Task: inverse folding
């Protein structure tokens, strides 16, 4: 995918808004071209005023095209929202116009209602700032494998990190250069250079800057040692060493540079929040926890500017995985909840005057940025909404001018539709984003048997939050949500009569099973339960609706099976089995692919051998599987399979290792003949389904992002304390 396209997609997803991009022609008067040009001006160039003008022209020029006009009007509201407090009224008016002027565009209207509701529900929607509020991307962070990011330096010039080889390094925002941390760098860090040095790079992980920016603390030797390096040290100084295989993670320095707040514990075990003296390495336990932290331990707490408190999203008591923000007194005298709310909260930082704690919360449905005033270690006044829908982020710290740096990270999962051409010889790319709500969090699409509905799973939260099963009407655009009483669900499959949906889910920890979900009532019933180490695929329905098929791999057996299961008698029948390669088991992907596709006539099952280059079919009545196609180039893999409505042909997607950033789409006859390329999509294609009319497909696409952003001018400036 081209670099500019990647930037545009990531930025749109970050703001929580998707667009149904129509096929793009080369004509400048094409509404799709004009809309994309306006989005680029808004998101890439950051020219909000210019973008608003373009959106207004689109509305005037294409007033009869309600689909395009509604999206342009929505974008106007988003632009005004970015201006901050001074333009909240204009943003509200713009969102209201979407609701009033385009009532038939249900998906866009629904999104406008959500944005308007968020603005109206905040008692004080934003914090005033002296300059224009803005958000910008400052680094496209390259994949570092086991490498990780540390913190932004207090002056905002550098970002610390650890590379894949365990070397400590820094990135300079102004020059876009990286270098490794050595003594030379710390002595003269204002003149960063990427030239070779004779000095040995410092090894370690999770580096955190001291308040004056002259020292860095980090851990090393399997995270058992807490160290400090600075310009007056020839070698890193170990200030604390753990015992009994425990790890220590530095979190923050006290403002006077005398203490380091850290977390000590074992993975998935109890842990301690501790303070360690920089001078003599003495350790004091602030609090002990019986369960592991529900967030990364190295971001659990941050010192207040006066050094008296630590604000953190510490683990809650009991079985709840929802965190609240607490203020923990450094002297150990108190711990006060900053805001008691059932939704999950995440500490981001303090304002430099120490009067405000900034945190993220999902209390309004999306992850938003909030501000809570504090006074003498206690909450003071009402919460204030700063920015809605900030996405899944990793805080990297505040600088002296109150700018907030963060890593936008995660797998962005979206659902797209694409049409065949008139002769079904090609797929018309680029595709259209099918779902405009909760962008980046939607997976497992499938058409209903009659083609009138599209089902999918919306993964709106991480961890063990319940995931809605969404059913969207293609005629009206309305969506019906079902939230099964399960810890999570995946792989939904419509029953042949369209009355229920079969899902893989979990009611208990480490135990998956198949469940039947009633489309009208949302009620669930258990079909099969599996052992904790069993690996299964999404099930497929038999044409009569009385049996299901699934792939199964027992961890102690050297082969995989396709099983036919009778819903009434509960009898199991092996359809076929195959050799097993342990390297193919990754998560829920067994020897057979997670894609087991049954032909529309119910006679054949298609599968591929565990994300392999081989496409196979087997009769549903049982028998020997038959290979119908094998990818020829080294490293080529098959990712997803679907049947065409006539049961005579299959389509499948393929990619080439090690990169998976481009997928080819193919068609082949069930006999293995007449292979034809349908198109190339500049991203991946997963969970594919062909519409019953054979005119279009729907698929999921998974895009991994890891970019550093900065949010500026959203807090009032304060004078540095001396």
Result:
């Amino acid at each position: 995918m081209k670099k500019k396209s990647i930037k545009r997609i990531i930025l749109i997803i970050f703001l929580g808004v998707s667009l149904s991009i129509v096929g793009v022609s080369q004509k400048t008067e094409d509404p799709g071209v004009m809309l994309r040009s306006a989005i680029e001006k808004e998101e890439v160039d950051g020219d909000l005023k210019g973008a608003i003008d373009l959106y207004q022209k689109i509305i005037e020029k294409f007033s009869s095209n309600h689909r395009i006009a509604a999206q342009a009007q929505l974008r106007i509201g988003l632009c005004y929202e970015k201006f901050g407090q001074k333009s909240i009224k204009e943003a509200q008016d713009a969102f209201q116009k979407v609701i009033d002027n385009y009532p038939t565009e249900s998906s866009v209207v629904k999104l406008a209602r959500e944005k308007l509701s968020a603005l109206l529900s905040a008692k004080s929607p934003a914090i005033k700032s002296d300059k224009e509020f803005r958000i910008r991307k400052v680094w496209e962070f390259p994949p570092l494998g086991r490498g990780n990011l540390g913190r932004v330096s207090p002056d905002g010039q550098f970002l610390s990190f650890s590379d894949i080889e365990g070397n400590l390094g820094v990135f300079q925002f102004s020059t876009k250069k990286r270098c490794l941390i050595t003594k030379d760098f710390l002595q003269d860090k204002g003149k960063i250079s990427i030239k070779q040095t004779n000095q040995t790079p410092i090894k370690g992980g999770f580096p955190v800057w001291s308040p004056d920016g002259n020292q860095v603390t980090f851990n090393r030797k399997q995270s058992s040692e807490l160290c400090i390096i600075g310009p007056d040290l020839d070698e890193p100084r170990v200030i604390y060493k753990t015992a009994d295989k425990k790890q220590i993670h530095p979190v923050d320095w006290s403002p006077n540079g005398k203490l380091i707040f850290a977390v000590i514990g074992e993975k998935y075990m109890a842990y301690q929040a501790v303070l360690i003296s920089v001078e003599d390495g003495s350790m004091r336990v602030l609090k002990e926890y019986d369960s592991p932290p529900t967030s990364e331990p190295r971001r659990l707490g941050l010192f207040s500017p006066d050094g008296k408190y630590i604000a953190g999203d510490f683990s809650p008591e009991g079985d709840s995985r929802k965190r609240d923000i607490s203020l923990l007194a450094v002297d150990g005298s108190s711990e006060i909840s900053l805001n008691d709310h059932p939704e999950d909260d995440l500490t981001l930082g303090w304002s430099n005057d120490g009067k405000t704690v900034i945190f993220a919360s999902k209390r309004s449905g999306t992850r938003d940025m909030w501000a809570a005033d504090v006074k003498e270690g206690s909450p003071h006044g009402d919460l204030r909404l700063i920015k809605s829908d900030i996405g899944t982020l990793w805080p990297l710290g505040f600088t002296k001018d109150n700018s907030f740096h963060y890593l936008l990270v995660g797998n962005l999962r979206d659902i797209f539709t694409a049409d065949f051409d008139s002769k079904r010889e090609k797929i018309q790319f680029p595709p259209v984003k099918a779902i405009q709500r909760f962008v980046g969090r939607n997976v497992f699409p499938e058409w209903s048997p009659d083609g009138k509905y599209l089902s999918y799973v919306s993964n709106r939260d991480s961890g063990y939050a319940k995931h809605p099963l969404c059913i969207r009407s293609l005629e009206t655009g309305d969506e019906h949500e079902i939230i099964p009483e399960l810890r999570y669900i995946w792989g939904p499959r419509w029953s042949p009569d369209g009355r229920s949906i079969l899902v893989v889910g979990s009611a208990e920890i480490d135990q998956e099973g198949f469940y039947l979900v009633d489309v009208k009532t949302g009620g669930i019933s258990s079909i099969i339960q599996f052992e904790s180490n069993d690996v299964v695929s999404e099930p497929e329905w038999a044409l009569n609706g009385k049996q299901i098929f699934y792939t199964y791999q027992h961890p102690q057996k050297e082969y995989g099976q396709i099983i036919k299961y009778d819903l009434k008698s509960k009898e199991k029948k092996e359809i076929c089995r195959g050799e097993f390669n342990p390297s193919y088991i990754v998560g829920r992907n067994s020897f057979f692919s997670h894609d087991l596709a049954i032909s529309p006539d119910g006679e054949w099952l298609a599968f591929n051998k565990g994300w392999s280059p081989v496409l196979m079919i087997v009769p549903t009545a049982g028998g020997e599987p038959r290979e119908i196609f094998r990818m020829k180039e080294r490293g080529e893999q098959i990712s997803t399979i679907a049947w065409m409505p006539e049961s005579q042909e299959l389509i499948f997607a393929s990619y080439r290792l090690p990169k998976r950033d481009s997928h080819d789409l193919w068609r082949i006859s069930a006999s293995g003949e007449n292979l034809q390329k349908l198109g190339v999509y500049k991203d991946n294609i997963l969970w594919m389904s062909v519409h019953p009319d054979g005119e279009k497909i729907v698929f999921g696409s998974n895009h991994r992002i890891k970019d550093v952003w900065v949010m500026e001018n959203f807090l009032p400036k304060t004078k540095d304390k001396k």
The longest strand covers residues 696-712. The CA atoms of residues 579 and 629 lie 18 Å apart. The chain has seven helices and 48 strands. The first helix runs from residue 3 to 14.
